[in-house]
Design a protein that fits this description.
The complex is a heterodimer of chains A (175) and B (88). Chain A is mostly helical and 175 residues long. Helices cover 73% and strands 0% of the residues of chain A. Chain B is built from three helices and no strands. Classes of the chains: A mainly alpha (175), B mainly alpha (88). At the A-B interface, helix 1, helix 2 and helix 3 of A face helix 1, helix 2 and helix 3 of B.
């Protein structure tokens, strides 16, 4: 297929991201960020990463919007920095170079869905073949997250728990 | 059938562009809010069409239900915010 469906989705992503930066009204910026998350989730779903799409929809479009609105309750709804300073010379030189460098390295990445890419030959076959014998869990993803990478998952959970407590403390009423 | 579904996907993306114009340009917040809601409903339908396109619609139905619920939560939060700002 010559024309792939990612292109319109990525165009919509770019438009919403630029709009969220350029718009003056902060509520509109929150709305645009919500649309941005929707489009990002659509891109994930189109590429087959359904679980990532679900997380993006829940956290980005749902929780993100609500948290931004709760923040706006306590602050002014207008962007007071209406006149932004022009980007410095270093920014204008370094960031396009960085973009070119990233595009250059992206050339060497394996093709999408390539069965011989390092990610699908190194450890995934071991997980798929042996996870039931080793962990007695029917779901491979659960066994990877909760058994093989259990310490990693515990660290993540601690970080998310701390962030949740911090949000609750910051956003409570009558503080 | 695949070609037809692909055409539906592209047409829906173009329709989303029309809503996006309203969100970006809309003179008042309510225009933007309505545009955002339209985008969300189109995104739900787009997700279902993607599911049918990949012939795995059972998994995508779950996500689109989640989308729809979260969309409601977001709209409610915004309505609450606007109501509160009115009284301040």
């Amino acid at each position: 297929m010559i024309f792939s469906f990612e292109i319109p989705l990525l165009l919509l992503l770019l438009v919403t991201a630029a709009g969220a930066i350029l718009v003056k009204d902060l509520i509109s910026a929150v709305l645009l960020l919500g649309s941005y998350s929707f489009f990002l989730a659509l891109v994930w779903a189109w590429l087959g990463a359904v679980d990532v799409a679900f997380v993006e929809a829940v956290v980005g479009a749902g929780l993100g919007t609500v948290l931004f609105l709760l923040t706006l309750f306590g602050t002014a709804p207008k962007d007071t920095r209406l006149r932004r300073p022009p980007p410095s010379l270093v920014t204008l030189i370094v960031f396009p170079l960085l973009g070119v460098l990233l595009l250059f390295t992206a050339n060497d990445l394996p093709e999408f869905g390539d069965p011989n890419s390092p990610a699908s030959v190194h450890i995934s076959p071991t997980y798929i073949e042996q996870s039931y014998q080793e962990t007695h869990t029917l779901n491979v993803v659960t066994s990877v997250l909760m058994d093989y990478r259990s310490l990693d998952t515990m660290g993540e959970t601690v970080v998310i728990f701390a962030a949740g407590i911090a949000c609750a403390l910051l956003l409570r009423r009558n503080a | 059938m695949k070609t037809f579904l692909f055409c539906v996907l592209v047409l829906l993306a173009i329709l989303i562009g029309a809503y996006l114009y309203r969100v970006l340009q809309g003179p008042t917040i309510f225009d933007r809010l309505l545009g955002h809601n339209g985008i969300s409903t189109k995104a739900i339908i787009l997700l279902l069409v993607i599911g049918i396109y990949f012939e795995r619609v059972d998994m995508f139905i779950d996500i689109s239900i989640g989308y729809a619920l979260l969309n409601l939560v977001g709209a409610l939060a915004l309505a609450k915010y606007l109501e509160q700002k009115e009284t301040l």
